[in-house]
């Protein structure tokens, strides 16, 4: 392996130059998205490094998460870390308005949220000048070269937590070994989701002594919130009918789900499907699919009620998934019938559900593997297999109970690793 150097590589310098030139264009694009989400102007300016909140006194531990899933996993970690370090303050940065709204609802003590700076010179400098973090923890695959290098150069110890890199990303970095080593050498600690990611990081140039295989941080997230009044109301509308859930479905998946539901309706005409599209704004497209399938539906966003003729209830709202999981112990998790990567199975498992998935869950391979091995989850490849899995659990209470217990046990086993994660962060980043 070539000798390490603290000197920036030509590729890194080129990146900094190009992002500086493209900065105004990137800002216009980012700002349009924030405006479309009704984010106030003062908060939009956070992307330019202009803080909307004062820096608290004392030690500040900074977490950067990409979006909603990563943010949820960070919240529970901050709660536990706050108990370990009662004098510490916390900052979460995340890039999406949805994650910002979620954090506001579930903000841990002594924590505040900001949008991250664009990875250009001015915003990064203003961000670091204002917040002066004592440690920085980047979650999953959020690699922003300038932000990482500049923070490290100021003496901020950095960790990459829950590290997950796609095969394409790994191969891309391997083609640029000097720059990969230069960026990765600014991290004090890497905690990976699995052994393969640990190996990939080392192959890319990370210092092997700083790499520790860990567990999927999302397994440690707090259970999704439940609105009990809504649960009671919808349960009354369901009126004792059998029900199953298809959650976080994407383009190209609802067709399979609705075909499976049609097969199930032939056996159980009173069966109800609770359909939760990953992107609620697709309700028009989902409506067309329902019409083509000839299945009657009620929409949550329209405050429509479930009646005896309703075959599909479309939960096309944000922030209520935990409430829907409380209604049913059988959940098909989308993002898996196509090569999308899947979604976090620990969320339905924590709610006490048995999980069904398609084969395309590669982003959560290390999470699904023990779930499937334990019997807490099952994999399907077609509408017929999906309807068969649902029918089996609907008709066999003992099998469903066994699957639900296995899923819950798998989550609890993963949660026990949280103390190890906190110990590693505290020891390597001097957090206590």
**Total number of domains:** 2
Q: What is the makeup of the main sheet? A: 7 strands, parallel
N→C terminal distance: 34 Å
Average pLDDT for all residues: 91
- Fourth CATH level, the homologous superfamily of the largest domain: 3-Deoxy-D-manno-octulosonic-acid transferase, N-terminal domain
Quaternary structure annotation = single chain
CATH C-level name of the largest domain: Alpha Beta
Which keywords apply here?
single chain; 432 residues; alpha/beta; Rossmann fold; seven-stranded parallel β-sheet; 18 helices; globular
Task: Describe what this molecule looks like in 3D.
The chain is of the alpha/beta class. It folds into 2 domains: 10-215 and 417-429, Rossmann fold (3-Layer(aba) Sandwich); 228-415, Glycogen Phosphorylase B (Rossmann fold, 3-Layer(aba) Sandwich). Helices cover 47% and strands 15% of the residues. The strands form 2 sheets. It has a 7-stranded parallel beta sheet, with helices on both faces. The model has no long low-confidence stretch (mean pLDDT 91).
């Amino acid at each position: 392996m070539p000798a390490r150097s603290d000197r920036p590589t030509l590729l890194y310098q080129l990146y900094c130059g190009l992002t500086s030139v493209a900065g105004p264009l990137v800002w216009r694009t980012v700002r349009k998205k924030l405006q479309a989400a009704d984010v106030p102007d003062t908060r939009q300016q956070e992307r330019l490094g202009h803080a909307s909140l004062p820096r608290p006194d004392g030690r500040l531990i900074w977490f950067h998460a990409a979006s909603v899933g990563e943010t949820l996993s960070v919240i529970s970690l901050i709660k536990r870390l706050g108990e370990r370090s009662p004098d510490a303050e916390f900052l979460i940065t995340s890039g999406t308005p949805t994650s910002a709204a979620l954090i506001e609802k579930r903000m841990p003590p002594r924590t505040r949220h900001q949008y991250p700076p664009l990875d250009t010179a001015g915003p990064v400098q203003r961000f670091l000048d204002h917040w002066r973090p004592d440690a920085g923890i980047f979650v999953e695959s959020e690699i922003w070269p300038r932000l990482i290098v500049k923070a490290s150069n100021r003496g901020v110890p950095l960790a990459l937590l829950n590290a997950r890199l796609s095969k394409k990303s790994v191969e891309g970095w391997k083609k640029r070994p000097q720059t990969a080593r230069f960026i990765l050498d600014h991290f004090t600690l890497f905690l990976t989701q699995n052994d393969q990611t640990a190996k990939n990081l080392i192959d890319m140039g990370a210092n092997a002594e700083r790499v520790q295989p860990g567990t999927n941080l999302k397994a440690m997230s707090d259970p999704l919130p439940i609105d009990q009044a809504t649960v009671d109301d919808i349960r009354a509308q369901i009126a004792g009918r059998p029900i199953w859930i298809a959650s976080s479905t994407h383009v190209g998946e609802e067709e399979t789900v609705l075909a499976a539901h049609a097969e199930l309706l032939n056996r159980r005409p009173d069966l109800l499907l609770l359909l939760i599209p990953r992107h609620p704004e697709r309700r028009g497209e989902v409506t067309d699919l329902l019409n083509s399938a000839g299945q009657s539906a009620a929409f949550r966003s329209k405050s429509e009620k479930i009646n005896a003729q309703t075959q599909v209830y479309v939960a096309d709202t944000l922030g209520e998934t935990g409430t829907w999981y409380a209604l049913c112990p059988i959940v098909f998790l989308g993002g898996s019938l196509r090569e999308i990567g899947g979604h976090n199975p620990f969320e339905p498992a924590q709610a006490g559900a048995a999980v069904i998935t398609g084969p395309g869950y590669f982003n959560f391979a290390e999470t699904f593997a023990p779930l499937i091995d334990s019997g807490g989850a099952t994999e399907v490849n077609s509408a017929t297999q999906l309807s068969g899995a649902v029918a089996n659990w609907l008709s066999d209470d003992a099998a469903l109970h066994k699957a639900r217990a296995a899923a819950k046990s798998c989550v609890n086993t993963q949660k026990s690793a949280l103390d190890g994660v906190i110990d590693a962060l505290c020891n390597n980043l001097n957090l206590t």
